[in-house]
């Protein structure tokens, strides 16, 4: 932010310091940037250590709203006008060169197959979205269940820059209108406008799903608007340099301390999936960050602490650190230990950030690079990027495309036909025969265990021969983890067990995507008449769809037990033996993201789920398969490449462990002999 009387110039955007002549920086705000970007980097490296680290982005949003609005107000006061063209040109100089270099580097890295086929397939459109500053909208339109099967995009972090750029495009125009109205009426018009916009942002966030609210520009605008309100408050009371009165400083300092404590608490206790985050949570974070910013520039103690030289150094390079760190994390994947990955990512991010800050950011922002040279460099980067993306474009179907093809097939075994319809097919029955020879269908072929293999969740055809009297006719119900188990059982080709798969990807007990699971399961049980039913799913957080009780509460346990009891009753309606699964906790830095505490990635939640499974089984006579204990006992990272689904090798070994348990139950003991 410029000091009073200084020439209006560039101020700080998301993660970015400003290096501008005649501008005196606020070192304390650089210190805040350093802490914010550090929280984001640590969150991306290991969400378990800092599950709420993502709020560093909100801190940057507040800083941007505050500093940009202060700059615009100062320019308006000095000139009675705001030069939109000049403002946008400064934004371009500040943000685009380094972003385009990172985009080109990511494209070139794709030539060495660093990103995986699915990420490489989407790299062209994602790069275009990043250049057009609409990455957040691109991600909103390209999400879905199958996205969980692929490695994350190296450009995923560009969503926050897109939100920033959209704010920079729209907010100056709105502010010009508000200031014009204020000049004709009263300064309260600006407060009214900010209040209306903030209310709209809160409302939009409230009605959206948590996933949509996280990426939506209008729902995330609350942090930017709170920062803008802080700047207008400073202007309204003539307090650009801080509260003039001792009482004002004490109030701001106290609020800042409370805000900082709130942010620290949220860093260690918040996760993106928490339902209240988009229903007031973003506003709370913004207000806490706003109070901290206000204190940082007025309270001597906070100012000195945040102006610590190492923090200021990192803060000045935080934009580059943010852009660079995420592609490094994606490139490394799960290689090595967390410590080794952290050392590499942090070391390279700081080193490269220091380099580009010196040779690119400072010269461009200071105006030492002409527009002609910038245009030539930009054209060259675009050409290199486009060529690299074209050369590295996958020429064969990617794993995600194969999963999507599977999901789109009408004949997916998970999609049952209502009983009594014209298209309903009779279940295979056992005709009279003198000798029955068990037939094992062709075993599925699995690929590498190094990453999630979509062949492990491919659909299975129904058996093409009736079950023998000595065979265990097994029906498998559940989600994609159950589909994997079906494939594993089919892969070992044990003639004692005949597999009927009726799992559905992304669907088990919960109502979202499969609201009629009870009817679907009942139809399959009646049509197939199995000897045994295996219900194999991972933890489901949302069983009711809306207004689910707290997961770890007594009410939550009651809902789970009722759900499991219903499932057991349906599965055993024709006399089949029912098996339920105590699942393993989801793991993996990419699958769980920040889902550590109070999510399905929290061990206490998995334990509560398993306890409800065992309770329902004890009440109904079902048998529990301790799949989670089996997974945990192996201590093999290669068992679950994506943190959830078993690899091909693990599925075969899991099947060999599972089959004896299926055949050992008293109700099924006569089978398999």
Automatic annotation (TrEMBL):
Keywords: Acyltransferase, Cell membrane, Membrane, Transferase, Transmembrane, Transmembrane helix. SUPFAM superfamilies: SGNH hydrolase (SSF52266). It is a multi-pass membrane protein. One of its GO terms (cellular component) is plasma membrane. The keyword Nucleus does not apply. Residues 28-353 form the Acyltransferase domain. The chain crosses the membrane at residues 51-74, 95-115, 166-182, 189-208, 214-234, 246-268, 280-298, 305-326, 338-356, 377-394. Signal peptide: none annotated. InterPro entries: Acyl_transf_3_dom (IPR002656), Acyltransferase_3 (IPR050879), SGNH_hydro_sf (IPR036514). One of its GO terms (biological process) is lipopolysaccharide biosynthetic process. It holds the Pfam family Acyl_transf_3. It is found in: Cell membrane. This is Unannotated protein. It comes from freshwater metagenome.
């Amino acid at each position: 932010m410029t000091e009073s009387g200084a020439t209006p110039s560039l101020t700080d955007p998301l993660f970015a310091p400003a290096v501008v002549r005649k501008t005196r920086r606020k070192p304390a705000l650089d210190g805040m940037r350093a802490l914010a970007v550090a929280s984001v980097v640590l969150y991306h490296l290991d969400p378990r250590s800092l599950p709420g680290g993502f709020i560093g982005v909100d801190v940057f949003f507040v800083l941007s709203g505050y500093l940009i609005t202060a700059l615009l107000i100062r320019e308006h006061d000095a000139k009675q006008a705001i030069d939109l063209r000049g403002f946008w040109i400064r934004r371009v100089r500040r943000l685009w060169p380094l972003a385009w270099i990172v985009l080109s580097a990511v494209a070139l890295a794709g030539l060495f197959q660093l990103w995986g086929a699915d990420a490489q397939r989407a790299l062209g459109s994602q790069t275009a979205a990043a250049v057009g500053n609409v990455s957040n909208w691109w991600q909103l339109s390209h999400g879905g269940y199958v996205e969980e099967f692929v490695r994350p995009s190296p450009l995923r972090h560009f969503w926050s820059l897109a939100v920033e750029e959209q704010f920079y495009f729209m907010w100056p125009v709105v502010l010009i209108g508000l200031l014009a109205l204020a000049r004709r009426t009263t300064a309260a018009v600006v407060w009214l406008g900010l209040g209306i916009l903030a209310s709209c942002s809160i409302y939009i966030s409230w009605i959206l799903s948590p996933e949509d609210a996280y990426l939506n520009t209008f729902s995330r605008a609350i942090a930017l608007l709170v920062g803008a309100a802080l700047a207008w408050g400073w202007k309204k009371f003539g307090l650009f340099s801080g509260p003039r009165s001792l009482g004002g400083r004490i109030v701001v300092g106290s609020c800042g301390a409370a805000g900082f404590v709130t942010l620290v608490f949220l860093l260690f206790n918040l996760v993106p999936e928490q339902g209240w985050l988009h229903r007031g949570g973003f506003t709370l974070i913004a207000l806490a960050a706003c109070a901290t910013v206000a204190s940082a520039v007025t309270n001597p103690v906070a100012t000195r602490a945040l102006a610590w030289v190492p923090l200021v150094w990192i803060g000045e390079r935080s934009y580059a650190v943010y852009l660079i760190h995420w592609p490094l994390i994606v490139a490394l994947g799960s290689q090595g230990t967390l410590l080794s990955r952290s050392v590499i990512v942090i070391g390279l991010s700081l080193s490269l950030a220091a380099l580009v800050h010196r040779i690119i950011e400072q010269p461009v922002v200071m105006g030492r690079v002409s527009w002609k040279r910038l245009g030539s460099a930009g054209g060259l980067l675009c050409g290199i990027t486009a060529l690299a993306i074209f050369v590295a474009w996958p020429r064969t179907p990617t794993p995600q495309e194969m999963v999507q093809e599977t999901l789109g097939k009408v004949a997916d075994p998970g999609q049952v036909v209502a009983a009594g319809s014209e298209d309903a097919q009779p279940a295979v029955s056992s005709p009279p025969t003198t000798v029955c020879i068990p037939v094992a269908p062709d075993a599925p072929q699995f690929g590498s265990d190094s990453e999630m293999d979509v062949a492990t969740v491919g659909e299975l055809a129904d058996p093409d021969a009736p079950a023998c009297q000595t065979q265990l006719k097994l029906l498998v119900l559940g989600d994609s983890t159950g589909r994997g188990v079906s494939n594993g059982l089919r892969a070992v080709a044990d003639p004692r067990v005949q597999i009927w798969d009726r799992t559905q990807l992304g669907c088990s007990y919960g109502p979202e995507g499969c609201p009629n699971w009870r009817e679907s399961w009942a139809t399959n049980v009646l049509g197939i008449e199995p000897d045994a039913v295996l219900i194999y799913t991972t933890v489901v957080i949302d069983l009711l769809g809306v207004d689910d009780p707290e997961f770890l509460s007594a009410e939550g346990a009651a809902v789970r037990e009722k759900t499991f009891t219903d499932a057991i009753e349906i599965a055993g309606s024709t006399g089949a033996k029912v098996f339920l699964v105590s699942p393993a906790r989801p793991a993996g830095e990419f699958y769980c993201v920040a889902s550590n505490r109070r999510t399905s990635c929290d061990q206490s939640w998995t334990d509560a789920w398993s306890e409800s499974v065992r309770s329902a089984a004890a009440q109904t006579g079902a048998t529990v398969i301790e799949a989670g204990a089996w997974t945990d006992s192996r201590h093999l990272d290669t068992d679950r490449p994506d943190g959830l689904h078993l690899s091909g090798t693990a599925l075969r070994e899991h099947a060999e462990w599972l089959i004896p348990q299926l055949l050992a139950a008293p109700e099924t003991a006569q089978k398999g002999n």
